[in-house]
Design goal:
Length: 159
Amino acid sequence: MNLVIKICLGAALTLAALAPLAHADDFELSHNQRIACSRSLSAGKLSTATCGSYTYIFNTKTSEYFRCAVNLALTHDKKEVINVQVDGGCVKKPRIFDTDSHYSFDATETEAPNTNSFFGPGGYAIWASDTTSQKVRGCITVSSGLGSDISKCLDMTFK
């Protein structure tokens, strides 16, 4: 039994030593998730509720990021749930900075089109900073309304 414990301990120490080498990039989850839900009535007294949520996953080494979304649709009548559907996934977005370093970030999206959003849903802002130097970049992406997104970034100046 002593031999088994020594082998397991040796394997654990080896994996602990190799883990930093295998994990060259670190990923951070946005702390600014939102959820939005709506309801509608369908024919035959059916009710459908749809909810959607998003978050961003950020590579703290390369400044590449992914926008992830999940959507749920629930249809029911007065007695039972008839249908539940869920879909979603993550879409890779371009780098914010050209060089590798160690970055921090946050993200937010526009509100639903019936509130204060000029461009409707789909617009978002990403803020990223280099944690090794005084370097911050703000990026805004909005829908042009013509089928493409417009994205611009600006390096902040410090006065």
